Structures are given as C-alpha cells and as structure tokens.
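User: structure tokens for VOC domain-containing protein, please.
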Amino acid sequence: MPTSIFVNLPVRDLKVSKAFFTRLGYSFDPQFTTADAACLVISDTIYAMLHRPESFARFTQKDVADARNAIEVILALSADSREAVDELADRALASGGSHANDPMDYGNMYGRSFHDPDGHMWEVVYLEPDDVE
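Assistant: Done. Predicted tokens:
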C-alpha cells in the first residue's frame, strides 16, 4: 500500500477555503470532514486537512503561524503539462487566490505559484518527462 500524506493547514474561514478549493476542481472526503476541519482530496494519496485555528492548535504546543505574514511551507503539486500549470494557476487567481511569484521557466521545468485565501503558498510544476527519471 502506498504511503499517503495528510498536510494539516490552519484556515480562518473553513467555508471560504472549501469554496476556493472546490472551484479549483478538488473535492472533500465527507468521512473526514466536520464543522472544525475538512479533508481536501488532492489525489489518491495526497490530502490536506483544513482546520479552523482552534482545531489546528489542538495538534501542537507551538504558536500557529499566520500564513499571510510568514511562510511556513510551500506546497508543490505536479501537473501533466505547461497548459495544466497555467489552467490551475489561472483558476486559483480567478477564485480568490493571489499572485505569489513570477512564473519560473527553466526549459525542462515550468511552474507558477499562488497564495490561497489564507496565505498558504502553492506551486504548480510541470517537469519534462524525459528529465524525470
């Protein structure tokens, strides 16, 4: 069985976050979604648990970072083509996300990044198949 990853992120408004990621084409697993947290399904093995701040704080003894003011992680997702990178990044910007960095184009690697409504930074990256071995 492949290892799954569950990335846990604090969000200010769970309803806004769910609407944003739904507009990007993702779904939520109702089995792991409550009034305090929602399980964003990114792929068969990748999930993001979006938690209200008080729910997120139960899992740590440290202060919870406000991603609008400090970077805590950059979440990178692969894409199947340059066009798919642009499609997802453009959809994110049109759905309430904000511009993070200028596009990166290294010939064999192309990517764009955006901030979700809570300030978490997401990258979408395409790697030429011949270069991924």
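User: Anything notable?

Assistant: Residues 24 and 91 are 6 Å apart (CA to CA).
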